[in-house]
Amino acid sequence: MEVTDRFFNEERLQIDDGARSYGWLMSQVDCLFCSDTFKSKQALHHILRHYEKADPDLRFGLDIFLQSDWARKSAIAHWKLFTDFDQVVDSQECLQSEHEYPDVASCCAYESPGAFHFLIRQGIIRSCYYNSFGHSLFLLAFQENVIETIGYMISTMSPFHLLAPASVAEMWDGRSILQLAATNSVVFGMCWEKIDQMPLDLKETLQEREIRSICQFASMGLASSLYRRGIDLADVVKKDSSLWLEMIRYHLEPTSLFDWLLMNNCLPPQDFLLCHPDPDSALDWLLANNFPLPCHGHGQEFLREFAIYCGRLDAAHWLSLDRVATCSTSGL
To answer: What is the pLDDT of residues 181-226, one digit of tens each?
Structure first.
């Protein structure tokens, strides 16, 4: 991953691009784990600049130190990191306030994703750690949306880590990492794939807020997988018919999810089309997808007249056919 150096001042550092000795690089490792954030960032910059250029033997020796327990424990101590959420809760009086300068790990997450990825891959910091403000390092990476780093972090985290709160801060309302991931289809897919393999009780892990987000990208396969673990998308959609409009508006490929909802006796409301902000486009979508409307009697006749009013005789003809949704009552 390419390292971006927004927090490094190239002119001020005046680094020689030539090869550096093992002793010099090791001195930078010592500087990396100090309480002076600026000196630590300088040392990290030196290491990153010369790590890729180093010969294999030199890099191997450097890896031994960077991947050691000593390096990890030094980072925890000098960068004021916490190894899990319970430790954060027990140490709340030691947390920094948000107006203070962040630790080295947080600086990397915010300003230099490549450096942050390097620290994670080397094991100097671990994916389940929390920073000096009480935010998980995963939360920082998630906010920057660096998918490569996020994917690696998820691969090294346990399902229990993914179900832990993403931050101790009130603004995050105790939301777990899994709940946080529900706003991103790729990240949620990676999290769910890992969690779904474990025999955990997942029924209460996602709230209505997260399910609304998931409905904007879920496939039939994901909906079925969630259903098997006690999380029923159809139950939430039945309670809030506006979700049908959100799915049409935001879901890139909603047809398979619609099929799953219909199979589970979850039907759109009779005013489904009339509530759409762009009914003419909605008519096009319904025609293209041969979508079954749960309209009957006056409701279906009203929709047909509405299509005529819009000048859509093709839609009026389509609506005059038998479009009453018939669904299996057995569910999945």
So the answer is: 999 999 999 999 999 988 888 888 999 999 999 999 999 999 999 9
pLDDT classification of 93: cutoffs 50, 70, 90: confident
Domain ranges of the chain: 1-175
* CA dist., res. 224 & res. 322, Å (int): 28
Q: Compute φ and ψ for 68, nearest 5 degrees.
A: -85, 160
Structure tokens at 22: 């093992």
Cα–Cα distance, 20 to 40 (Å, whole number): 18
Counts of helices then strands in the chain (DSSP H, E): 21, 0
Q: Are 106 and 65 within 8 A, CB to CB?
A: no
The pair of three-digit structure tokens given for residue 233, joined into one six-digit string: 């998308």
pTM given for the model: 0.77
Alpha-carbon gap, residue 15 to 32, rounded angstroms: 16
Query: Which of these, 23, 16, 20, lies nearest to 55 by C-alpha position?
Result: 20
Distance, CA of 13 to CA of 331 (rounded, Å): 65
Q: How many CB atoms lie within 10 A of CB 235?
A: 13
Query: What six digits make up the tokens of 133?
Result: 């403000």
